[in-house]
Design brief:
This protein is of the alpha+beta class. It has ten helices and 13 strands. A six-stranded antiparallel β-sheet has the order 6-9-10-11-12-13, with helices on one face. Strands 3-2-1-4-5 form a five-stranded mixed β-sheet, with helices on both faces.
Length: 393
């Protein structure tokens, strides 16, 4: 059981599924998943009562805070923030100290949060520790650069290896259309092999903001190659820190080297070679990315076979609009999965819907309710990218 490589929700769902099947002793399952028997019973009880939502991580915040900041002090902090809305907790603390009020920065920040005085753009968790995959091709990061210097509405498409910082692709597409991006990625797969996972943001064409699950045809195409699709946390660009840092280096080079400030494909190819083979990288102990990168042994298959679900699994084919017809009812799963095969796992009065190895939906038969599992990654305090949420459809 590779516990540390799975998202918390995935671990708990797998535990519940196996425990409900009754083919393994609960005590052995608890040992395998590294939890106590009481915790195992709690997870089972919560799932029976609330479904997947019930087994997510609960807040450990205490219900009572006897040492909470005094109301007059909180009001003074809020007043100073309203006077200087562009000042953060560190600067406000200096004003408070001059008034004889000595508080930690984190306390001032928490007061601002309680009073609703922190804008969404200000809520950026610090990167306490840089995360990095252990080997090349375990994860590729992908994003479009800003269109500065391109004279096109879209900047070049960048694909970079998480472990080595090796730039797999740097291509001017001029568009975010699925066909153009897929063509560039297919060429990269044919040349360098297929990665285990890819990390992207919530942008076109790998994310559909109009669909409840966010799934797109491009994402399904990637998954058919056995690629796990991961998404950065919303308003957390540091999750894709390596590709963002590469774009910064690319932009600085454009400003200082190009007289006309326009990047054509020939110049991008030269910069990519320099970045991979000549430019020392501080995060690599001043080595170049090429010294740490090798092509992936996983080969690209333009016509991949159907995904092989476990023997004996209940498998259904979705309709032309991605709908699931089950027991005389119709459930809207995802248009991106039209005509695709999904796996159903029945647990008491609920049904889990999987595509390949990803949990996509949960059907509550009694409540006649469909829940969408929305997945993204964000860097937590240990630098590990994983997170998930559940949304009612």
């Amino acid at each position: 059981m590779a516990w540390r490589t799975m998202a918390v929700r995935d671990q708990r769902v797998e535990f519940v599924v196996r425990a409900q099947q009754g083919q393994e002793k609960l005590s052995r399952l608890c040992v395998e998943f590294g939890i106590s028997r009481p915790t195992g019973y709690v997870w089972l009880k919560r799932y029976r009562e609330q479904g997947v939502t019930g087994i997510e991580e609960h807040s450990r915040r205490p219900r009572h805070s006897p040492r909470q900041t005094a109301p007059p002090v909180e009001e003074r902090i809020a007043q100073l923030r309203r006077q200087r809305p562009d000042w953060g907790a560190r600067k406000l603390r200096q004003l408070l100290r001059a008034e004889g009020i000595v508080l930690p920065v984190i306390t001032v920040h928490r007061v601002l949060l309680r009073h609703g005085l922190v804008r969404p753009d200000d809520r950026r968790s610090p990167a306490w520790q840089r995360f990095e995959r252990a080997a090349p091709n375990q994860l590729w990061q992908m994003d479009f650069k800003s269109p500065k210097g391109c004279q096109q509405p879209v900047g070049p498409l960048s694909v970079i290896d998480d472990h080595s910082r090796y730039v797999i692709a740097l291509e001017k597409t001029g568009t975010t259309r699925t066909e153009a991006v897929q063509e560039r990625l297919e060429q990269a797969f044919l040349t360098y092999g297929v990665p285990e996972a890819m990390l992207m943001d919530h942008g076109t064409p790998w994310w559909n903001a109009q669909a409840p699950s966010g799934w797109t045809k491009l994402q399904v195409w990637l998954m058919k190659q056995g690629i796990e699709c991961l998404f950065s946390g919303i308003r957390h660009p540091q999750t894709q820190g390596k590709v963002e840092r590469f774009h910064l280096a690319l932009e600085m080079a454009r400003r200082r080297r190009l007289r006309e400030n326009e990047m054509n494909q020939e110049w991008l190819d030269q910069f990519r070679y320099e970045y991979n083979y000549l430019r020392p990288h501080e995060a690599l102990d001043m080595q170049t990315p090429s010294t740490r990168w090798v092509p992936s042994p996983r080969r690209y298959d333009p016509n991949p076979p159907l995904w092989c679900y476990p023997e004996g699994a209940e498998v259904k084919q979705l309709g032309s609009q991605g709908q699931l017809k089950l027991d005389g009812q119709r459930w809207e799963i995802s248009k991106a999965l039209a005509r695709e095969r999904v796996r159903l796992v029945r647990i008491t009065d609920r049904i889990l819907v999987y595509y390949c190895n990803s949990l996509l939906k949960e059907i509550d038969v009694l409540a006649q309710r469909l829940c969408t599992v929305q997945r993204w990654t964000q860097t937590n305090c240990k630098g590990c990218p994983d997170n998930a949420s559940l949304k009612m459809s």
